[in-house]
Amino acid sequence: xxxxxxxITEFELIRHDNCSRRSSRYCNYPSFVVLYDNKKTSPRxxxxxxxxxxxxxxxxxxxxxxxxxxxxxxxxxxxxKTLVFVKKYERMNYTLTVKYVKDKKGRVSRGWVRxxxxxxxxxxxxxxxxxxxxx
Length: 135
Prior knowledge:
The protein is mainly β. It has one helix and eight strands; from the N terminus they run αββββββββ. Pfam families: fn3_6. Residues 28-130 form the Subtilisin-like protease fibronectin type-III domain.
C-alpha cells in the first residue's frame, strides 16, 4: 500500500544520507516499485525512470549482461545493457525505464531485471512491480 511504501522509503531516507535530498525512486533499493493512480484518466501511458548504482563484490573483475522480463502492459529498457567491472568494490550506474499503460481494473503486474555474470555463476535479480496506489 502507499502507507507501507512510505514507511519503507522514510526509513531508507534516514539511513542513506545520499538519498535525503532526492526523490526515493533514485535511492539504491533492490527493487523497482511503480505506483499509479488508476482513478485519473490522463495520462494513460506513464513513464518512470530509476537510476541505480551497483558494486562489484566479486574477487576480481566481471562482465554482467542484463535480462529483463517486463511486467504485463509495460516495456522496460535498461542502459547500459552490459556492466564491465575491472576490480573488486568498483561501482557502476545503470538506468531502468518503465513505460506502462494504467490498468483500469487496478491489477498488480510483476516482472524482473537480472544481471547475469558472463562466464561465471553470479546472477543478481531485482523485482519490478507495477501497482495501483492505495487510496
